[in-house]
From TrEMBL:
<feature type="binding site">
    <location>
        <position position="236"/>
    </location>
    <ligand>
        <name>a divalent metal cation</name>
    </ligand>
</feature>
<dbReference type="GO" id="GO:0046872">
    <property type="term" value="F:metal ion binding"/>
</dbReference>
<keyword id="KW-0479">Metal-binding</keyword>
<dbReference type="InterPro" id="IPR036069">
    <property type="entry name" value="DUF34/NIF3_sf"/>
</dbReference>
<comment type="subunit">
    <text>Homohexamer.</text>
</comment>
<feature type="binding site">
    <location>
        <position position="106"/>
    </location>
    <ligand>
        <name>a divalent metal cation</name>
    </ligand>
</feature>
<dbReference type="GO" id="GO:0005737">
    <property type="term" value="C:cytoplasm"/>
</dbReference>
<comment type="similarity">
    <text>Belongs to the GTP cyclohydrolase I type 2/NIF3 family.</text>
</comment>
<protein>
    <recommendedName>
        <fullName>GTP cyclohydrolase 1 type 2 homolog</fullName>
    </recommendedName>
</protein>
<dbReference type="InterPro" id="IPR002678">
    <property type="entry name" value="DUF34/NIF3"/>
</dbReference>
<feature type="binding site">
    <location>
        <position position="67"/>
    </location>
    <ligand>
        <name>a divalent metal cation</name>
    </ligand>
</feature>
<dbReference type="Pfam" id="PF01784">
    <property type="entry name" value="DUF34_NIF3"/>
</dbReference>
<feature type="binding site">
    <location>
        <position position="232"/>
    </location>
    <ligand>
        <name>a divalent metal cation</name>
    </ligand>
</feature>
<feature type="binding site">
    <location>
        <position position="68"/>
    </location>
    <ligand>
        <name>a divalent metal cation</name>
    </ligand>
</feature>
Amino acid sequence: MNPTVKQLLSLIGTDIAPWHLAESWDNCGLCAGNPEWPVQKVLVGLDPGMPVLQAAQQWQADMILTHHPLFITPEKTIDFSVMPGLAIALAATRKMAIVCAHTNLDKAENGLNDYLADRLNITVTRALEADSPELSPSAALTGLGRIGTLPAPVSLTRVADQIKSQLNVQPVRVVGDPDLVIHDIAVCSGSGGGLIPAFLTSGASVYVTGDIKYHEARLIESHGKALIDVGHFASEIIAKDLLTRRLNQAVSRAGFSLEIRAFAGETDPFVSI
């Protein structure tokens, strides 16, 4: 049996990334489409941009599931010739729903930050900014970012080299003493500047994230700590693999018939020349 968009939204919220975890400013869930549309094919990507939309149209997908939202702030004008209006028009004419799991996936236990930590061989102990840890022990594992430990203490330079290999990214931006010994480590997928105060009081020696600004880097440096900025894209492109695997598992448990494919054509908008 093929599920509807509404049934898939329920599966995602129940089995993968609870919708209530989304930040108040965020726009998660159904960005465009009809909850009652049936779904036979889902294309998973990072961004609901033209490469993903064109691939979904060519594959005749019924739903696009991305990490980043189609839009976050309200649109005053929907111009069908430019994004996001172009995507909305395509969704309407092709009956192709656009769904995103953003900060709810970032914060969820076994979500994107846990997956990032696992890719970096980090044993997670708690969230960097936990959601109400006083409510229950498990709540300490729900929230933005993660704190954990490496298998053995190594230098900052060695950690950076390992991360470049683990995330397949070149180069990375590093702040701190190259010989600083790292054992406790903090990570945050995407843009992690807002969690710097939490990192500085966390006990971790290095912060792995993306989109760090100059003065934020100086603040970290002034505290004798380290930073590895891998970039927004490298820290979150892995979301499509996580979503594909987790959705396949949830669909199988629910007994639905569905084709799910991860889009392989997205690239970082930034290049080094």
